C-alpha cells in the first residue's frame, strides 16, 4: 500500500495526534457541524482579538481525513485576520495535505475533508451577523459554506 | 425462466454484477447485502420483458396489455401471500419499502388510535425508519415513546417490556425482527405473546428477516409486518405491508387519489376494498412484477437452506475475525441468535477509513451509523463497519476481507 493517494504519512500522523484539539471555554465563535450520512462531527472554537484569530481549537469524532484536515485548517488560520480567513479557498486546504484529487475521485470522502472549512465559514458568518451586526462584512460566507460540497 | 442451480456456488452465474472488476481490477466482494442485495438475471429479465411486451396501467382499462399487466401484478400479490403463509392476499399492501409501510401505519392507524398520554414502545436497535415516524406521531398526539434497551450482549432487555405493558397505556410495540447492525434476532414470539396478553398490537420491521429466514405470518401472530423487496433480490421501490384484515378495514386511508376510491363525489368519497384502499396512484408495476421472480428464486433454493448457508458464513467470519488483534465485534457471540451480519471496529481506525482502504481490494462493506444512531449512542461509537452476507457469498470472499483488513493495519501502522 505504498504511495497511497489518501492515507499518507502526514494524514495518519495528524489523525493520531490532531493539532489544536480541544475546547475553548466561552469562545467568541463556537460552531458545531456534522455530515449526516457518514457521521463525522466536529465543534470549532475561535477567539478573535481585534481583527485576528488569536486562538482556535476543534474537537469531535471523525475519520482520519476529517481529523487531518481539521488539524491543518486550524494551523493555517491561527493568527490570520478575519478578512484573510474569509477568502480562504478549499484548494488551499486540500493541497496542503495532497488531497486535491478527492474533488474528482471521491465525492463521498471530499465531505470528510471539507467539514471543518464549512464549519469555519458558517461560524464566521454568524459572528459577523449575530454578534457584530455586520452582515456586509459577512459577505457571501453563508452561501459559500452551503455550496462547499 | 432460467434454471437455478441447487448449489450456492453455482448460482453466482445468475448475478451479472458479481463478475465485475472494481478499482484496480479487483474481483468484487459484495458484503453490503443488509443495505441492498444484487439482482439475478431472472428479475432483471422480467422487468425488461414487462416494458418490452406488456407495459400498461393496471386495474382499469379492458385492453389486452392492461389485462396482462394486471394479472402479473396481482399474481405477485398472491405469491407474496403464499411465501409468508397468509391465507388472504387482500392483506398484502404494496408500498415503496419498509419505511413507507411503517409511516403508513403511524399515519393511518396511529392518528386514529393513539391519544394523549398513550405509549408507543420501540427498541434501542431500531433503524431510523422505526423511530422517526413514532417521534412524529407521539409529538403530535402528546403521547410517549419508550425504548426497550439492549444489554451488553446486544440483546433486548425484555423485562422492560413488562414494566411498560403494566402501565396499561401501551398502544403498540414496534420492533425489528432482526437488527440491521448487530444481526440480533429478536425474541419475536415472546414479545408477541406478552403483547397479546396485554391486548396490545405489535408491528414487526422484517426488512432484515424476510430475506434470510422462513417467515410464517399465520403462526407468528403479530398484527403488522413490513419488509422491502430490494433486500431479497428484488427491485428497489417495492415493499410490502401486511396487516390483519380486521385492522386494515377499520383504518383510515393513507394517501388519497386514484385506485383507492370506490366513488368520488364533490365533497365525499367512499373507499375501495382492500388492499386498494391503501394503494393510491399508479403503483410500481414493473418492479412488483420483477419481485415475483425474486421470490421464485428464493423459494427454489429454500429459505431454510439460505439460513443455514448464512449461519455457516457468519460462524466462519466471526471465528476468523476474533483472531485479528484489535477487532471489536458487536452483538451476541452466539451465531444461532443472529443473522448474517457482522458489525465491527478495528482498533481506533474510523470505519470510513477502513471502508476506503478495503474498497481498494474490491471489498464492499458498509461503514457508518447504519441509520441507527440511537444504537450508536448506546454502543458509544460514532460508527461501525458492517459486513453482511447473502446467498451468493463464499468463505473465500471472507478470506479476502480478512487479508484486506491486514492492509488497514499496515496503513495505520498498527
Give descriptors for this structure.
heterodimer; A: about 150 residues; alpha+beta; Sufe protein. Chain: A; 3-stranded antiparallel beta sheet; 8 helices; 3 strands; about 15% strand; B: about 425 residues; alpha/beta; Aspartate Aminotransferase, domain 1; Aspartate Aminotransferase, domain 2; 2 domains; 7-stranded mixed beta sheet; 4-stranded antiparallel beta sheet; 13 helices; about 40% helix; globular; disordered N terminus
In brief, what are we looking at here?
With 149 residues, chain A is an alpha+beta fold. Chain A is built from eight helices and three strands. Chain A has a three-stranded antiparallel β-sheet, covered by helices on one side.
User: How is the main sheet of chain B built?
Assistant: 7 strands, mixed
- Backbone CA Rg of chain A: 15 Å
CATH architecture classification of chain A: Alpha-Beta Complex
Low-confidence stretches of chain A: none
| Overall morphology of chain A | globular
Instruction: Please tally the β strands of chain A and state the result.
Output: 3
- Quote the average pLDDT of chain A: 93
Shape of chain B: globular
Tally of domains of chain A: 1
DSSP E strands of chain B, number: 17
Strand-pairing-aware structural class of chain B: alpha/beta
Subunit organisation of the chains: heterodimer
The CATH superfamily of the largest domain in chain B bears the name: Type I PLP-dependent aspartate aminotransferase-like (Major domain)
> What order do the helices and strands of chain B follow?
EEEHHEHEHEHEHEHEEHEEHHEEHEEHEH
**Level-2 CATH architecture of the largest domain in chain B:** 3-Layer(aba) Sandwich
Tell me what you see in this structure.
The complex is a heterodimer of chains A (149) and B (414). With 149 residues, chain A is α+β, with helices and mostly antiparallel strands. Chain A has a single domain (9-143), classed as Alpha-Beta Complex (Sufe protein. Chain: A). Chain A has eight helices and three strands. In chain A, strands 1-2-3 form a three-stranded antiparallel beta sheet, with helices on one face. In chain A, strand 1 (29-34) and strand 2 (41-49) form a beta hairpin. The mean pLDDT of chain A is 93. With 414 residues, chain B is an alpha/beta fold. Helix content of chain B is 38%, strand content 17%. Chain B contains 13 helices and 17 strands. In chain B, the strands form five sheets. Chain B has a seven-stranded mixed beta sheet, sandwiched between helices. A four-stranded antiparallel beta sheet of chain B has the order 13-14-17-16, covered by helices on one side. A two-stranded antiparallel ribbon of chain B has the order 1-2. In chain B, strand 1 and strand 2 (26-27) form a beta hairpin. In chain B, helix 2 (64-83) crosses helix 9. Classes of the chains: A alpha+beta (149), B alpha/beta (414). Chain A binds chain B through residues 1, 4, 6-7, 12, 15, 37-41, 61-66, 106, 109, 112, and chain B through 349-353, 356-357, 360, 367-369, 373, 376, 382-383, 407, 410-413.
Amino acid at each position: 500500500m505504498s504511495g497511497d493517494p489518501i492515507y499518507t504519512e502526514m494524514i495518519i500522523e495528524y489523525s493520531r495526534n490532531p493539532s489544536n484539539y480541544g475546547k475553548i471555554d466561552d469562545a467568541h465563535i463556537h460552531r458545531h457541524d456534522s455530515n449526516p450520512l457518514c457521521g463525522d462531527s466536529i465543534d470549532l472554537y475561535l477567539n478573535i482579538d481585534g481583527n485576528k484569530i488569536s486562538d482556535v481549537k476543534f474537537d469531535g469524532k471523525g475519520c482520519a481525513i476529517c481529523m487531518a484536515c481539521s488539524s491543518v485548517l486550524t494551523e493555517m488560520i491561527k493568527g490570520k485576520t478575519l478578512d484573510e480567513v474569509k477568502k480562504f479557498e478549499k484548494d488551499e486546504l486540500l493541497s496542503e495535505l495532497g488531497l486535491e484529487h478527492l474533488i474528482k475521485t471521491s465525492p463521498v470522502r471530499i465531505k470528510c475533508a471539507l467539514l471543518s472549512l464549512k464549519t469555519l465559514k458558517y461560524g464566521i458568518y454568524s459572528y459577523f451577523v449575530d454578534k457584530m451586526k455586520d452582515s456586509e462584512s459577512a459577505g457571501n460566507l453563508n452561501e459559500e459554506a452551503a455550496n462547499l460540497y | 425462466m432460467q434454471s437455478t442451480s441447487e448449489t450456492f456456488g453455482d448460482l453466482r452465474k445468475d448475478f451479472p454484477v458479481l463478475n465485475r472488476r472494481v478499482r484496480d481490477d479487483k474481483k468484487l466482494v459484495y458484503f453490503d447485502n443488509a443495505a441492498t442485495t444484487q439482482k439475478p438475471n431472472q428479475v432483471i429479465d422480467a422487468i425488461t420483458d414487462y416494458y418490452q411486451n406488456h407495459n400498461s396501467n393496471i386495474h382499469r382499462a379492458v385492453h389486452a396489455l392492461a389485462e396482462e399487466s394486471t394479472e402479473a401484478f396481482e399474481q405477485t400479490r398472491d405469491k407474496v401471500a403464499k411465501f409468508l403463509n397468509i391465507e388472504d392476499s387482500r392483506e398484502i399492501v404494496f408500498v415503496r419499502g419498509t419505511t413507507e409501510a411503517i409511516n403508513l401505519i403511524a399515519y393511518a392507524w396511529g392518528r386514529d388510535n393513539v391519544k394523549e398520554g398513550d405509549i408507543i414502545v420501540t427498541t434501542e436497535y431500531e433503524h431510523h425508519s422505526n423511530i422517526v415516524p413514532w417521534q412524529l406521531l407521539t409529538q403530535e398526539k402528546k403521547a410517549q415513546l419508550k425504548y426497550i434497551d439492549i444489554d451488553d450482549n446486544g440483546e433486548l432487555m425484555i423485562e422492560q417490556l413488562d414494566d411498560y405493558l403494566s402501565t396499561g397505556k401501551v398502544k403498540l410495540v414496534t420492533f425489528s425482527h432482526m437488527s440491521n447492525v448487530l444481526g440480533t434476532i429478536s425474541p419475536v414470539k415472546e414479545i408477541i405473546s406478552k403483547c397479546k396478553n396485554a391486548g396490545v398490537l405489535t408491528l414487526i420491521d422484517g426488512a432484515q428477516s424476510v430475506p434470510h429466514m422462513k417467515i410464517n405470518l399465520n403462526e407468528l401472530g403479530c398484527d403488522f409486518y413490513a419488509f422491502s423487496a430490494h433486500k431479497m433480490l428484488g427491485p428497489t421501490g417495492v415493499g410490502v405491508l401486511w396487516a390483519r384484515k380486521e385492522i386494515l378495514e377499520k383504518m383510515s386511508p393513507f394517501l388519497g387519489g386514484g385506485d383507492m376510491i370506490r366513488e368520488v363525489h364533490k365533497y365525499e368519497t367512499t373507499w375501495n376494498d382492500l388492499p386498494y384502499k391503501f394503494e393510491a396512484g399508479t403503483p410500481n408495476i414493473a418492479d412488483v412484477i420483477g419481485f415475483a421472480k425474486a421470490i421464485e428464486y428464493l423459494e427454489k433454493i429454500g429459505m431454510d437452506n439460505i439460513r443455514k448457508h448464512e449461519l455457516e458464513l457468519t460462524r466462519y467470519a466471526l471465528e476468523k475475525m476474533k483472531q485479528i488483534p484489535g477487532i471489536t465485534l458487536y452483538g451476541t457471540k452466539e451465531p444461532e441468535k443472529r443473522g448474517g451480519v457482522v458489525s465491527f471496529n478495528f482498533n481506533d481506525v474510523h470505519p470510513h477509513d477502513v471502508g476506503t482502504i478495503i474498497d481498494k481490494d474490491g471489498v464492499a462493506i458498509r461503514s457508518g451509523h447504519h441509520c441507527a444512531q440511537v444504537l450508536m449512542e448506546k454502543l458509544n461509537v460514532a460508527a461501525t463497519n458492517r459486513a453482511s452476507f447473502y446467498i451468493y457469498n463464499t468463505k473465500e470472499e471472507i478470506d479476502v476481507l480478512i487479508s484486506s483488513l491486514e492492509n488497514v493495519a499496515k496503513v495505520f501502522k498498527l
